[in-house]
Amino acid sequence: MTTRQQTVVAVFDDRAQAEQAINDLENAGISSDQMRFAGHGTSSGGMLDKIKSLFTGQETGAIYNDLVNMGVPQDDASYYQREYEVGHSIVAVPAAGRMEEVTEVLARYGGYGANRRFAQTSDTANTANTADTASTGVRETEAEGEQGVKLREEQLRVQKQPVETGEARLRKDVVSEQQSVDVPVTREEAYVERRPGSGQPTDQPIGEGETYRVPVREEQVTVEKQPVVREEVSMGKRPVQDTRQVSDTVRREEAHVERTGDANVRGSDVQDTTDQTDQTTP
Predict the structure, then answer these.
(1) Is 172 a domain residue?
(2) By Cβ atoms counted within 10 A, which residue in 88, 138, 152, 259 is the most buried?
(3) Domain limits at 34?
(4) Among the ranges 11-20, 25-34, 57-66, 107-116, which has the highest mean pLDDT value?
(5) Which is nearest to 8 in space by CA: 132, 109, 97?
(6) How many CB atoms are located within 10 Å of the residue 136 CB?
(7) Are 7 and 113 contacting, i.e. CB atoms less than 8 angstroms apart?
(8) What SS3 state is found at 105?
């Protein structure tokens, strides 16, 4: 098991950037009691009013003394003291196992450490520890034991949001068509029927000019139109479940063990790489 005591220190050219970084750190769960701040100008309120100052007093070199007491190497503490004296803001955070997360937040808002190469590697905050690891800019105090690296990989996270792809409208139009209906009608027609007379004498003289009128009628068809409900048409919408496949390229980190000389590595399932330049050919 490895024990580490880590403090991340960052310089900010702009006090407002330091305030934004501190706000993000607290949102990430870093307590304001853990953070230290030294800056110039008037506070805009908020988180800075809750954070302890790096000054232990009003004497010259207070930032230097506080940082050294927090485990920052003296050279780095002197650098931060000079940065403060020229008007920059200093933020110090005991990382307690969250060094990478704290460093990324400070770097996001323009923080940089005693070694300027942080600005080139997106790791702009200096990590103060008693063991000097100059190749990474991080100093750590480590007990004798295991050392490890965290392997990360990218994972696809799919989100869905409704979007309008079109619309459907229901309307009605008037269509004219010719219809024929057979209707039975009745009409009257005149007929003449002759019967033999009875032969009885009559008192009426024979004359001309008698006319009998027989009216003849028939049924005529009249047409009326009346709208009636023929059928109902309704329209709605319902969800339909489909399956779509999305794909993208993801990256992952792999561990490689590099051996120099006669170093033996056992119990490792990662790729073993031997540095051939240090081996002597007989």
Answers:
(1) no
(2) 138
(3) 1-137
(4) 11-20
(5) 97
(6) 13
(7) no
(8) helix
DSSP state string for 140-186:
--B-SS-------B---------------------------------
In a domain, 258, yes or no: no
What whole-number distance in Å separates Cα of residue 193 and Cα of residue 234?
67
User: In total, how many domains does the chain have?
Assistant: 1
CA atoms within 13 A on the CB side of 163: 4
> Residue 184 pLDDT more than 90?
yes
User: Residue 98 to residues 38, 93, 169: CA-CA distances in angstroms?
Assistant: 22, 10, 57
| Token pair for 47 | 């988180």
- Through-space distance between the first and last CA atoms of the chain, rounded to whole angstroms: 40
276 in any annotated domain:
no
Q: Is 26 helix (H, G, I), strand (E, B) or coil?
A: helix
Q: Which two tokens stand for residue 181?
A: 């209906």
Q: Which residue, among 70, 47, 142, 140, has the nearest Cα to 80 in the 3D structure? A: 70
Q: Is the torsion defined by CA of 119, 121, 123, 125 positive or negative?
A: negative
- The pLDDT score that the predictor gives to residue 34 is 79
Q: Has residue 183 been placed in a domain?
A: no
Asked if 26 and 47 count as a contact pair (C-beta separation under 8 A), the reply is yes
Q: Where residue 123 falls among pLDDT bands split at 50, 70, 90?
A: very low
